């Protein structure tokens, strides 16, 4: 693109107009261009050149990163809490809740309480019934997932957490094999991360494939991804998951690494991984893989279906609740009395 220097210059300005864009092209390139306003998720302008139609946003990508809400930004605020963004709750509620949690004296403890409050038996079983059971990535592991839910609600938190980690890796490998055509034998965390990055780019590029140039195209992948997270909701959610994957779950472990980390959990390098709220954390990570699958598999809901009118979920919920009340609470009390563990309360 011979006009790239001029387009980069325009895209970095605090705010542009049709007139300003036309005058910059006239001055810097000595050509007349047709400029029209266009909103593709963020307001901007189409610029018709002899090399094709280009697109610039009204304000710089840096401005949108700092001033506009997106799932990626919410996820960044949740990284220290080691929580992937819950996809069944409105973004506004999540943003407000995390803002309040981060103001607490002990945000991590407050985040654990929050996770227990938003993750009901019905939520877990709706995901099992409507998502995991019909998923091409997870359905062969659905019995393990259900048993993990059972274990969690009868107080076997450690087993529940440990059983979902290999399921997470299998599901992520399967979805990347089906969507990106990667090797089914791939177990590399770097390749997983690269696969999520490619998914973010692929979905964003679908929306702008008619443009010869747009912010980041062919010169800066980071800018391109940021641009996509503002104009493409699918790219935004996938990118937020990549952040959680690389900055929390698969972050290289060290003495300062929190217990919610794949390496620490699998190799039991610390004991704080067994925090019961970590079951919710890994379960929410599984739902992000389900979101990716829903983009191509119509059997998996794209929007949260709810559970109020679902008789199957009601039946399974009654069973799990009965198990929790009859076995979970007495079991926790007994294990505390025997000093085998220290359960702080019911989940």
Counting DSSP H or I runs of 4 or more residues, the number of helices is 15
* Portion in strands: 5-15%
User: Are there runs of 5+ residues with pLDDT below 50, and where?
Assistant: none
Separation of the first and last Cα atoms: 57 Å
The value of Rg in angstroms is 23 Å
Strand order of the largest sheet: 1-2-3
* Residue-averaged pLDDT: 90
How is the biggest beta sheet arranged?
A: 3 strands, antiparallel
- SSE pattern, N- to C-terminal: HHEEEHHHHHHHHHHHHH
Helix content: 55-70%
Shape: elongated
Count the beta strands. 3
Structural class: mainly alpha
Structural summary, described in words:
The protein has 347 residues and is mostly helical. It has helices at 4-11, 18-28, 61-67, 71-78, 91-101, 107-118, 121-132, 142-153, 157-180, 189-207, 221-231, 233-249, 262-267, 277-294, 311-337, and strands at 34-39, 43-49, 52-57. It has a three-stranded antiparallel beta sheet, covered by helices on one side. Helix 10 packs antiparallel against helix 12. The longest helix is centred in the C-terminal third of the chain and has 27 residues, at 311-337. The protein is elongated and about 85 Å long. The termini are far apart. The mean pLDDT is 90.
């Amino acid at each position: 693109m011979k006009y790239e220097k001029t387009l980069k210059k325009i895209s970095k300005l605090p705010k542009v107009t049709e007139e300003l864009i036309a005058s910059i092209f006239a001055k810097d390139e000595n050509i007349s261009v047709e400029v029209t306003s266009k909103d593709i998720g963020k307001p901007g302008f189409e610029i018709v050149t002899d090399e094709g139609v280009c697109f610039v946003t009204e304000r710089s990508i840096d401005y949108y990163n700092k001033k506009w809400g997106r799932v990626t930004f919410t996820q960044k605020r949740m990284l220290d809490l080691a929580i992937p963004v819950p996809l069944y709750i409105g973004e506004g509620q999540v943003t407000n809740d995390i803002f309040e949690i981060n103001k607490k004296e002990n945000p991590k403890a407050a985040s654990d309480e929050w996770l227990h409050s938003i993750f009901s038996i019905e939520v877990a079983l709706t995901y099992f019934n409507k998502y995991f059971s019909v998923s091409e990535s997870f359905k062969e592991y659905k019995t393990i997932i259900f048993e993990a839910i059972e274990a969690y609600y009868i107080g076997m938190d450690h087993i529940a957490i440990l059983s979902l980690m290999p399921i997470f890796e299998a599901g992520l490998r399967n979805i990347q094999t089906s969507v990106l055509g990667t090797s089914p034998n791939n177990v590399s965390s770097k390749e997983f991360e690269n696969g999520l990055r490619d998914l973010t780019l692929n979905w964003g590029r679908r929306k702008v494939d008619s443009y010869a140039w747009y912010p980041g195209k062919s010169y800066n992948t980071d800018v391109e991804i940021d641009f996509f997270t503002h104009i493409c909701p699918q790219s935004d959610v996938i990118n937020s998951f990549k952040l959680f994957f690389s900055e929390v779950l698969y972050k290289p472990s060290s003495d300062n690494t929190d217990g919610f980390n794949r390496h620490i959990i699998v190799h039991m390098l610390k004991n704080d991984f067994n925090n019961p709220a970590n079951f919710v954390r890994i379960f929410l990570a599984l739902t992000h893989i389900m979101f990716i699958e829903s983009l191509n598999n119509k059997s998996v809901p794209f929007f949260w279906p709810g559970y109020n009118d679902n008789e199957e979920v009601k039946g399974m919920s009654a069973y799990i609740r009965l198990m929790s009340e009859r076995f979970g609470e007495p079991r926790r009390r007994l294990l505390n009395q025997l000093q085998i563990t220290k359960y702080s309360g019911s989940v």
